[in-house]
Amino acid sequence: MSLLDRVQKQQGPDPSAVPDGSYVPQAGNSPARQSSSATRTRTPFELQAERVKNRLQARLIEQTAAEDSGDEDREQRAARITEALNAVVAEMGLSLTKPEKQRMLDSVLNDFLGLGPIEALIGDPTITEIMVNGPDQIFVEHKGKLTLSTVQFESEDQLRRVIDRIVSTIGRRIDEGSPMVDARLKDGSRVNVIIPPLSLNGPILTIRKFSKDPYKITDLIKFGTITDPMAQFVKACVRSRLNMLVSGGTGSGKTTTLNVLSSFIPEEERVVTVEDAAELQLNQEHVVTLESRPATVEGRGRIAIRDLVVNALRMRPDRIVVGECRGGEALDMLQAMNTGHDGSLTTIHANSPRDSLNRLETLVLMAGAELPSRAIREQISSAINVIVQQSRLRDGTRKIIAVSEVLGLHGDQVKVQDIFVFKQTGVSEDGKVQGYFTATGIIPKYFDHLQSSGEGVTKELFTPSPDPAAQGGK
Ligand SMILES: Nc1ncnc2c1ncn2[C@@H]1O[C@H](COP(=O)(O)OP(=O)(O)OP(=O)(O)O)[C@@H](O)[C@H]1O
Ligand SMILES: [Mg+2]
Known about the structure:
Elements lengths: L2 H9 L19 H9 L4 H24 L6 H18 L6 H16 L5 H5 L3 E7 L4 E5 L2 E4 L7 H13 L11 E5 L5 E5 L9 E5 L8 H7 L4 H12 L4 E5 L5 H9 L8 E5 L11 E5 L13 H8 L6 E4 L6 H10 L6 E5 L3 H14 L6 H11 L2 E7 L5 E13 L2 E15 L5 E7 L7 H6 L15 H5 L2
Parallel strand pairs: 7-11, 7-12, 8-9, 8-10, 10-11
Antiparallel strand pairs: 1-2, 1-6, 2-3, 4-5, 5-6, 12-13, 13-14, 14-15
Helix pairs in contact: 1-3, 3-4, 4-5, 11-12, 12-14, 13-14
Bound molecules: adenosine-5'-triphosphate and magnesium ion.
The site of magnesium ion (MG) has 3 residues, from α10.
């Protein structure tokens, strides 16, 4: 059902029949409103605002269709909406006080120009994720922890309007026929929308925010995600063209770390990035960004990550950076890494360096490669050099809990050894994870390679650190 159809349906056959100026709840008007009003009683102002906005929206859609006002800037659009609002308020015979009028205008502009009540959450730099579970429940991630916010949508209709605004900016639409969409906000934040009937608790909106200036290695050191010696090591690995895998759970910071690692790629190299939704922000000048495409509603035109990896290989890349390996592209990446495209970087969803290699094996099998396990493991052990294991700990902090190297095939198992680890020693009374980073004392297999590449890595980097807490206690 199109937006216009929905608006008309909500308004009933004759919009002028709406009793003007009254605060009558319209619970019977639409199933959507019934379900949302069942969970929270709307204030009279909210009910009135809802009716004004529905009528205003119908009017604005008509106007836009008639005037094709696609080139309007924000101010012109705000002026046009204000004018339309005044007309609607007059038509409906509402008598609003001056503060009520202002509140109505603010709310309308927030909805029609911005993202409604979540605008403030979007603007708050300390919030990294916004999870809208229907109109009444919005969770946010604040400093790594999930909390229920006090913000709510006025109604399911308002939430649907905001969703329509977001998806229409990327030329997509969302309705019963295509009830799932990935989109991006203007600031680059990643958005996923899924609506009923696929979601059983109303329209769901998940927004992953990214900091305006992408995090740099100095930020990760400051946050306690990585130490300076670990940073020196991974930087040398990237610059000397080792193949690296960033492994971690959902939201553990894999893409952020991949971005930081990619920033170490020398300026003179040609980088091709391949992602589902372009999230990487590289500063180098010579970067080509490829983005996969979902199938259309008719099921045609899908371009998978795997197709793009194959295409990237024909683009004379010095480096290939793949946002995440989660399907058949794993096989193509391994083959690329084994056939001269060294220095490639990617991420994978796994909870330990060992798991990441098992997962890679599963992905290769999923790609339909009819290879015996041993052959796949041989490919993996010669392709992947270093694994960076990322984790979001119980207290919400994100840490690189291991930097490991792949030693090769021993028997029929791929052998991995840790070079740096985070040793957790306990949890404080206020729930903070306690521990420290240390080298394991093992000199990496690639030490000579790093040295001969002129990366200035010394053996001292790999000296274990004592437990600071135990030292303090002496
Ligand atoms: N080291 C860090 N310290 C603090 N916050 C971080 C760190 N790394 C990433 N973040 C924040 O955590 C959120 C998730 O980061 P990111 O997208 O990199 O994770 P991911 O593992 O790639 O997630 P997904 O599994 O969804 O792909 C972002 O909001 C990001 O800004
Ligand atoms: Mg990611």
